[in-house]
Write a structure and sequence with these properties.
By secondary structure, this protein is of the alpha/beta class. The protein has helices at 4-9, 36-49, 59-79, 93-104, 126-135, 152-158, 181-190, 210-213, 238-243, 278-294, 296-314, 342-351, 364-370, 386-403; strands spanning 17-18, 21-22, 24-25, 87-90, 113-117, 138-142, 163-169, 194-198, 217-221, 232-236, 254-257, 262-264, 320-323, 332-337, 354-355, 357-359, 375-379. The structure holds 4'-deoxy-4'-aminopyridoxal-5'-phosphate (PMP). Residues 92-94, 121, 123-124, 169, 173, 198, 200-201, 221, 362 line the site of 4'-deoxy-4'-aminopyridoxal-5'-phosphate (PMP).
Length: 404
Amino acid sequence: MLDIQKIRADFPILNQKVNGKPLVYFDNGATSQKPQVVIDAISKYYQEINANIHRGVHTLSQLATDAYEIARGKVQNHINAKHAHEVLFTSGTTFGINLVANGFASILKPGDEVIVSHLEHHSNIVPWQMLCEKTGATLKVIPMNEEGELVMTEYDKLLSEKTKIVAVNHISNALGTINPIKYMIDKAHEVGAAILIDGAQSVPHLKPDVQALDCDFYAFSGHKMCGPTGTGILYGKEAWLNKLPPYQGGGEMIKEVSFEKTTYAELPHKFEAGTPHIAGGIVLGTAIDYMNSVGFENIQKQELELLAYATERLSEIEGLRIYGTSKNKTSVISFNIEGIHPYDIGSIIDKLGIAVRTGHHCAQPIMNFFGIPGTIRASFSFYNTKEEIDALVDAVKKAQLMLS
Ligand code: PMP
């Protein structure tokens, strides 16, 4: 059992008033809050070991390099990658997906197919559309149903020897649906296609095991899992990372440079051009340690309790519709109230101290499916409480009264 008050004390930002009311932070899907250990680790890096990495012989540079590589090892252990050099530091999920999509430009031919799903965030749609435009490949889309689940029989039909890569999220940011990615990975491999998993919304809730999943790529962001913004990871199987061309050219990613020819560095450096977010990478390791100290079983238990409680309490409100009703979902509730624009509810409840996301959540195809401009999305983290959900329900009721 988690001692929630003790956990909340780890997050200084939670202990404040916003618009004169105690802050209720339910926008965890957009970014999580940061525990004190993470905030402290950032200052400690700049106070004690700040230096550029992988290039200096001096002591600070070595200390910073060691700390950065230790963090890479922590990520490797966390996601159970076979090799540390399969773990690339990036600026976030978006960067990781673009890196892979850009690399596939050297592989795809006209007539090849790329599969995404109706449930994707724009950052797992647009890079693939750009890839298709560049190469003459065709984009195929796995449809979703009214519950907000992907239709696996349709996925099976889309797969063929033309499919070169499938890109799908582990968990939908807009609806919270957990996709059957193990099935999808195995099916993609049956036709010889690669598969990238967008893990942006899964890593805050679970520990992915990339070897057990057998995915080819797994991309995620640090900032949604208690780490700093501007940090992220792209896991790629060694064979794929060796096959793909570098994404960006520059310092750090080369073996030798001359005007006639440049040769590239070994993994992971081939994909890590330029000075990275050194403090960010190191502190992502701290964030992972923190989450593991809370424990993913505890995190899931708390979040599922909050999801069940919030679903029940919000369902009391007349005219409220929840989008995304799969039994397989994480602690996200996307909803609307009949006749009221989501922005109006969001703005009023903000005045009552409650932070939710309103809009299309960078997932316009999902909104189009339901024929709505957007939703109100409350996304819960392990540091949230049932009392905060009560405050949300009261606030939404007040807003509804004011607006109808
Ligand atoms: N995919 C999903 C499912 C997301 O939720 C997000 C962030 N909202 C992204 C990709 C993009 O992540 P980032 O902005 O950190 O690159």
